[in-house]
Amino acid sequence: MKKTLTVVLAIALALGLAVSGCPGDSGQSSSALGRITGINANSTQPPQAGELAPDFYFKTAEGEDTSIGQLKGTPVLLNFWATWCTPCRYEMPHLQQFYDEQQGDEVVLLAVNVGESSSDVSQFMQSEGFSFPVLLDNQGNVARRYNVQGIPTTFFIDSDSVIQKIKVGAFQSQEEIENILSQLD
């Protein structure tokens, strides 16, 4: 009986981790390539639904400087992830499918990779066939600014730069993303 209980608890724990996400710090080394800058790392309160999304500056894949604030007027799906995170890898095809259908027309998808090098992220994206925009948070400054405790974590930010919903854990389908967005209209 005790052995059965132990097995059941182990399975429940494994499923809980798979559904909820990966813990925040992987201990991975980072590089200075692909930077995100301009963060006020001394922010005392983590952002909550109903509050303005913290602004941060980043370089696009084309090398242009932009910020979340400059995207005002367009809803943003801000997703924090890493290549080593199994739930992140699970949801990536759903994000790609969403991105392919949106193509930036109605919602901007920004995937923020936390703590990995540009070469590791590029290699992963190419090998998996993903083409949506990825920003690099090499030092984890943006993740700290958004108080990301585990990944994947996604912030749904409306066209007024207000956080409408925070989802911790992997998306199970593209439809789940669309359902959440439709509830925010």
State the CATH class: Alpha Beta
Helix-strand topology string? HEEEEEHEHEHEEEH
Kindly give the count of domains.
1
DSSP summary: helix tally: 5
Range of strand content = 15-25%
Notes on the structure:
With 185 residues, the chain is of the alpha+beta class. It has a single domain, classed as Glutaredoxin. Helix content is 34%, strand content 22%. The protein has five helices and ten strands. It has helices at residues 2-20, 86-102, 118-128, 141-145, 174-184, and strands at residues 22-23, 36-37, 57-59, 65-67, 76-81, 108-114, 134-137, 150-151, 153-157, 163-168. The strands form three sheets. Strands 7-6-5-9-10 form a five-stranded mixed β-sheet. It has a three-stranded antiparallel β-sheet with strand order 2-3-4, with no helix packed on it. It has a two-stranded antiparallel sheet with strand order 1-8. Strand 6, helix 3 (118-128) and strand 7 (134-137) form a beta-alpha-beta unit. The radius of gyration is 17 Å and the shape is globular.
Question: How would you briefly describe this protein structure?
Answer:
This protein is α+β, with helices and mostly antiparallel strands and 185 residues long. It is 34% helix and 22% strand.
Describe the secondary structure blueprint for this structure.
Layout: H1 2-20, E1 22-23, E2 36-37, E3 57-59, E4 65-67, E5 76-81, H2 86-102, E6 108-114, H3 118-128, E7 134-137, H4 141-145, E8 150-151, E9 153-157, E10 163-168, H5 174-184
Parallel strand pairs: 5-6, 6-7
Antiparallel strand pairs: 1-8, 2-3, 3-4, 5-9, 9-10
Helix pairs in contact: 2-5
